[in-house]
Specification:
The complex is a heterotrimer of chains A (about 575), B (about 280) and C (about 260). By secondary structure, chain A is an alpha/beta fold. Helices cover about 30% and strands about 30% of the residues of chain A. Chain A starts with a strand and ends in a 5-residue tail after the last strand. Chain C is globular and about 65 Å long. Classes of the chains: A alpha/beta (about 575), B mainly alpha (about 280), C mainly alpha (about 260).
Chain lengths: ~575, ~280, ~260
């Protein structure tokens, strides 16, 4: 491995900017770190270069641990966002800087410089000053300078940020050529997905300090695992649907699918479906569709963009069961609001069926992708409307809904607390919360979020479970939740201190197993913590001592919640609890 | 993009910080401590007697009065000059702009004798004023004049960037909204540069209170009439009355600290306003 | 109309306050001809005063330059608690009356001062001698280089330094080959201004010097003595030299601003 990061964490004022990132980049690979601004990608790159000391974790270059090696001795080449050329030095002096530091002879320096200038197509510019060059040329010099000392790793921080589109493309090609020619391991940071697709062997998508997914561009585009990646890598329509044993149902229409996720407890459940705008088909009539029918729609807007035509469609209200949550959709807190779909068509498609605003059409999907996330939507369960507002404006719920762009329904509860049909049930904390939660789980809810009044979004999320049958589900829910929050994940288990060392060892092993499972299956990195004691009480104490905690708790018996857990859920200083329930006996 | 950099990758913090702190302590803090200790070790009654001596009180009045007046003159003319330099293009503007800093660079003794020469009864300007019955040299007016000269760059150089910051658009926007030039000035320009103006005023005042070199030549130095506080300290020293000198020095130092504090507060206020305005 | 009025007003004010005094210095200095101007420097006391001033500046300016660079480096490149206090303390000498600046050294090293007796015993003179003049001058000119460099270096950021480090350069190499060339114009102006203040300091030096002709009189003090002796040509001749220094300082400042496009404060 050329670059290997292990659980790298960088905090700024106690807030993780880079959150538990593990990554391996192989020899000669072109790796692109993609993410929105503030996602921590630049900080991660600076950490690899040695410019940002990390708080936790390990960084290795070519098998050597460089975590505590200064930037000077890491021998990487770094290209800065704004070039950072030495403005008082000529192009030649800039490029030869690293060689002069290494006391190379003038003749050798000269030869190397000529070679580099040829590589970046800037022959003859040796004596110019940076100020006499265009932005694109300056960036070429910066690349040449970073390569002069033959680093084994080249790092580029938003190298095309300040350039206009045409030069950007040209420079992109140069960098790709240089990289291929030298076979140098390269990490490039960008917020531009098109750039990532054009350059990368593999892409790592970052958000909120976390590395969400890593994969080849094609795979990430076609089969994203998370909502964020689905929508950040190109346009995507996200839609809630119900997954049965062998079909995906949108309202009354079902599309047969070959994607089989194991259904929890065998019953039909709600899923998030990704449909790329180019994978949607439009026809006048349902019989004319060549692909699976989804819904009827009305054309709201037609945009001509040159090569493609962009359509915005509105789904009529009556398609109640399938609520769209993707691109450009504003879903009101109560679940009302129009659902919209984005579709792009090629010019030939447009010619066969010209459309304008107001036309009624039907849509079909040529390709569907079901996100493997267990969190689809939320249902706020309240007894009176005073509580409704309180819950809907809870910062945690607001953050989750905004980040997931999903639906929140409100269900008025009578005295019997039956669980909603789909989605995560959200109930208020306080007295009686444990009993209500237990009842919901018993009546069919898989996840219940208990929200005590609070004005903060959690910064630490503890994950633990009661019974191994629910471990996988708890990790999946925890991972899904943590992608939406900028919080640290801590995997917790309790074992009695002293006496039975074997029991302690076994618990610790279970924790570490869970950690590797979370990493392998869900891409979630977490800390592990073994607390002394037995049962939920010591874990609850540990959680309560954190500054802004939250707990994700897996249970296999609904009665546990009303019993042992009640004390924690209804405690003095309560924190949000997300209960994950999978019955031990299916 | 990057939240805020930790600068620790660059070397040299230990050595530079160490040297800075050491040098600061040795050259500035230790001597000032000596002054404060000397003042503190004095008998309180004696201290009060020295610092409230009629001659001392007269010198405070003079120092404060003339500094305040000079700073006020600079507030007006400094603003006018800054305005002229920022808004208007005229031949010689660059030279004028450069020469504003002259009082920073010109030794105070030189400006002292030069001002005296210009404004004395037979000086270039003094002789004309003399005919009008205005005596400048060897009067409080002369002191004010010298302090005006010393304080001018402080006001101009603090107001200038604030005026540059305030783009002409804001003013034009005010005018398109129906504000007359006077109204625009009072409601738009003045509030925007007020923190800078006051900072400049405080800087000029602080400098004026302590000024010595340029004042003593034009002041005449008559005890109780044209004797400034710094001069009184020098006189006490020449009398080898170190205790009295130290007591007066403590008073001056306290004033310096107060001025420094208010200048910092004013600047913080100005920055906050600027940030708030940009949001 | 307003424009013409304001420009006239500004120019009139500046002429009376700045141009006239500057002009009078040279007019008086050369009032008895160039010969007389030169003659005033033949005086041995004047020569001694010039030498003392040059010597003082030669000691003070390099020390304050090194200090200024150190202070600017640690303030502009690092975050640490108490940074704003440090900046305020560095600016402190600007707010202190020059007379007080001299006084503090008298209280420290004078006969009745903290170290007075000890210095007497060891026959070391600081007050009324060169060391006192140097110390007082150092105090007064202490902030100039640092004040010039801190905002400049903060504005420039550390990208180029970081680039140098990733390319394998060490601290000194980075400083001399990357940082120093970037700040050279600001540094030049800071040094020149520091020098002008050092050579022209009057109040603080006047308190510690003892006014011993030919021994502890700097140029500004010598001007005072000549002036009080009604030797106007002599006084203004020396003053013209210092004025020239001020003019050169301002010229260099304009040059620096023109070179860097950067305005102080």
């Amino acid at each position: 491995m050329s670059i290997s990061l292990d659980q790298v964490t960088k905090r700024y004022q106690d807030h993780p900017v880079v959150n538990d990132v593990s990554l391996e980049v192989s020899e000669g690979e072109f790796f692109v770190l993609l993410g929105p601004s503030g996602s921590g990608k630049s900080t991660l790159l600076r950490a690899i270069a040695g410019l940002a000391p990390i708080d936790h974790g390990q960084i290795a270059l070519h098998g050597n641990d460089v975590t505590h090696t200064g930037a000077r001795d890491r021998g990487v080449g770094l290209v800065f966002q704004n070039y950072a050329l030495f403005r008082h030095m000529s192009v030649a002096e800039n490029i030869e800087f690293a060689l002069r530091v290494r006391r190379m002879k003038a003749a050798e320096r000269r030869a190397r410089r000529k070679e580099l200038l040829r590589l970046v197509a800037l022959e003859g510019m040796d004596e110019r000053l940076p100020a006499q060059l265009s932005g694109g040329q300056q960036q070429r010099v910066a690349v040449a300078r970073a390569l002069a000392h033959k680093p084994q790793v080249l790092l580029l921080d938003e190298p095309f940020g300040a350039l206009d589109a045409k030069i950007r493309e040209e420079l992109r090609r140069t960098i790709r050529t240089v990289q291929r020619e030298l076979g140098i391991t390269t990490v490039l940071v960008t917020h531009d997905q098109e750039e990532a697709f054009a350059l990368a062997d593999r892409i790592g998508v970052m958000n909120l300090g976390r590395l969400l997914e890593v994969g080849r561009p094609r795979d990430l585009y076609a089969r994203p695992a998370t909502r964020f990646v689905a929508t950040f890598l190109g346009a995507a329509n996200l839609m809630l649907a119900r997954q049965g044993p062998d079909a995906i149902r949108f309202g009354d229409s079902a599309i047969a699918t070959d994607i089989h996720h194991r259904l929890p407890q065998g019953r039909e459940h709600e899923v998030v479906v990704v449909m790329r705008p180019e994978e949607l088909e439009i026809a006048r009539d349902r019989r004319l569709l060549t692909s699976g029918y989804i819904a009827r729609a009305v054309v709201e807007e037609v945009l001509f963009t040159g090569t493609l035509e962009r359509l915005r469609l509105t789904l009529p209200e009556e398609v109640e069961a399938s609520r769209l949550v993707g691109v450009g959709t504003s879903v009101g807190a109560s679940g009302s609001g129009e659902a919209r779909l984005e579709v792009v068509r090629t010019q030939p498609e447009r010619r066969t069926l010209p459309l304008q605003a107001g036309d009624a059409v039907v849509i079909g999907a040529r390709h569907l992708h079901v996100l493997p996330t267990p969190l689809s939507s939320f249902v706020v369960c309240v007894e009176d409307s005073a509580r409704e507002q309180e819950l809907l404006s809870h910062p945690l719920l607001e953050q989750l809904v905004a980040s997931m762009k999903t639906r929140v329904l409100v269900q008025q509860m009578a005295s019997d607390h039956r669980a909603p049909e789909a989605g995560v049930a959200v109930i208020a904390g306080g007295a009686g919360a444990a009993r209500r939660a237990a009842h919901m789980l018993a009546t069919g809810a898989n996840e219940v979020l208990v929200l005590p009044p609070s004005d903060a979004v959690p910064a630490q999320v503890g994950i633990c479970w009661h019974g191994d049958g629910v471990r996988g589900a708890t990790l999946a829910v925890g991972a899904s939740l943590l992608r939406q929050l900028s919080a640290e994940a801590i995997c917790l288990a309790a074992a009695p201190e002293g006496r039975r060392d074997s029991a302690r060892g076994a618990t610790l092993r279970r924790l570490l197993d869970a950690r590797s499972e979370a990493r392998a299956t869900h891409g979630l990195e977490m800390r592990t913590e073994l607390v002394a004691g037995e049962g939920i009480a010591p874990i609850a104490d540990y959680i309560a001592a954190l500054p802004a905690p939250m707990l994700v708790l897996g249970v296999t018996r609904a009665t546990d919640v009303a019993g042992e857990l009640a004390a924690f859920i209804e405690s003095e200083r309560p924190s949000p609890v997300l209960l994950v329930y999978r019955s031990a006996t299916p | 993009m990057t939240p805020r950099r930790s600068h620790s990758v660059l070397p040299g913090f230990g050595i530079t910080f160490g040297f800075t702190a050491f040098f600061l302590c040795a050259i500035v803090l230790l001597p000032l401590t000596a002054l404060v200790m000397r003042g503190a070790s004095m008998d309180l009654a004696r201290f009060v007697e020295v610092v409230t001596d009629p001659r001392a009180l007269a010198s405070y009045r003079l120092s404060f009065g003339t500094s305040m007046l000079a700073a006020a003159i600079n507030l007006v003319f400094g603003f006018v000059i800054a305005w002229t330099l920022v808004r208007y293009r005229f031949p010689g503007r660059r030279i004028v702009d450069a020469i504003i800093d002259m009082p920073f660079a010109l030794p105070t003794a030189v400006s002292g004798i030069a001002l005296t020469a210009v404004f004395s009864a037979n000086g270039w300007i003094g002789e004309h004023l003399e005919k009008l019955g205005i005596k400048v040299a060897y009067t409080p007016l002369g002191i004010t004049l010298a302090l005006t000269l010393i304080g001018l760059p402080f006001v101009v150089r603090t107001v200038q960037p604030a005026l540059q910051e305030l783009s002409k658009d804001v003013e034009e926007a005010a005018e398109t909204l129906g504000a007359g030039p006077f109204h625009a000035f009072r409601r738009v320009i003045l509030p925007a540069v007020l923190p800078a103006l006051l900072t400049g005023f405080a800087l000029a005042f602080a400098r004026g209170v302590g000024e010595y070199g340029s004042v003593i030549f034009i002041a005449g130095n008559m005890p109780g009439l044209t004797e400034i506080t710094p001069l009184l300290i020098v006189i006490r020293l020449e009398e080898y009355d170190y205790a009295a000198a130290a007591a007066l020095g403590c008073v001056m130092l306290a004033i310096s600290f107060l001025m420094l504090l208010s200048i910092n507060l004013l600047q913080a206020w100005g920055r906050r306003r600027l940030v708030a305005a940009r949001r | 109309m307003v424009r013409a009025l304001l420009i006239t007003l500004s120019l009139a004010f500046l002429s009376a306050l700045l141009f006239a005094p500057l002009a009078v210095v040279f007019a008086t200095a050369f009032s008895e001809g160039v010969q007389a101007w030169f003659a005033s420097f033949a005086d041995s006391d004047t020569g001694a005063a010039i030498r003392l001033t040059l010597l003082t500046a030669a000691i003070v300016v390099p020390l304050n330059t090194v200090f200024g660079i150190c202070a600017a480096w640690c303030i502009a490149k690092f975050e640490f608690p108490g940074k704003s206090l440090l900046i305020t303390l560095i600016d402190l000498p600007l707010a202190v009356s020059p007379v007080v600046s001299g006084l503090v050294y008298v209280l420290l090293f004078g006969l009745q001062g903290w170290f007075g007796a000890w210095l007497m015993e060891h026959d070391i003179s600081i007050i009324f001698a060169l060391p006192g003049i140097v110390l007082a001058t150092m105090f007064v000119t202490f902030p100039y280089v640092a004040r010039e460099l801190i905002p400049l270096m903060q504005q420039q950021g550390d990208d180029e330094e970081e680039a140098a480090i990733t390319l394998g350069a060490g601290g000194w190499f980075t400083f001399f080959h990357v940082t120093l060339p970037r700040i050279r114009w600001g540094l030049l102006y800071g040094v020149i201004l520091c020098n002008a203040r050092a050579m022209g300091e009057f109040g603080a030096v006047s308190v510690v010097s003892g006014h011993i002709r030919g021994l502890t009189n700097t140029m500004p003090l010598h001007i005072e003595i000549l002036y009080q002796e009604y030797n106007f040509v002599g006084a203004f001749a020396v003053a013209s030299l210092l004025s020239l220094l001020a003019v050169v300082t301002l010229l260099i400042k304009s040059l620096v601003e023109w070179r860097t496009g950067y305005r102080r404060r």
